[in-house]
From TrEMBL:
GO MF annotation, one: alpha-galactosidase activity
Protein name: Alpha-galactosidase
Keywords: Disulfide bond, Glycosidase, Hydrolase, Signal
EC number, as in UniProt: 3.2.1.-
A cellular component annotation (GO) from this entry: cytoplasm
Signal sequence range: 1-20
Originating species: Medioppia subpectinata
Length: 89
C-alpha cells in the first residue's frame, strides 16, 4: 500500500510540473522587506526615533537593499504594511 501512495505522489508531481505555465511569471517568490516583522505598529517617532515606522525608515531600507546587493538577488519590494493609513498618530 505504501508503494501505491508513493507512486500516486510521484505521478501528481510530474503532472503538476507538466501543467505549469511557461510565461515567465513568478519564477521566484516575491521577495522584499516588510516592516511588520520588526516594527509592528510603532508610530511614536518622538519617543522611539530609531524604532518607529515613518518615511525615513522605508527610504533607509530601500537604500540599504540596493547598496547591499539584495536588489540584484531578487529582493524587489519594500512592503508598506500595517498602520500607515492612520489619520492620527
Amino acid at each position: 500500500m505504501t508503494h501505491i501512495k508513493l507512486l500516486v505522489c510521484i505521478a501528481a508531481v510530474v503532472t503538476m510540473s507538466c501543467m505549469a505555465r511557461d510565461d515567465g511569471q513568478a519564477l521566484t517568490p516575491p521577495m522584499g522587506w516588510l516592516s511588520w516583522t520588526r516594527y509592528a505598529c510603532e508610530t511614536d517617532c518622538k519617543r522611539y526615533p530609531k524604532g518607529c515606522i515613518d518615511e525615513h525608515l522605508y527610504r533607509a531600507q530601500a537604500d540599504a537593499m540596493a547598496a547591499d546587493g539584495y536588489r540584484e538577488l531578487g529582493y524587489n519590494y519594500i512592503n508598506i504594511d500595517d498602520c500607515w493609513s492612520e489619520m492620527e498618530r
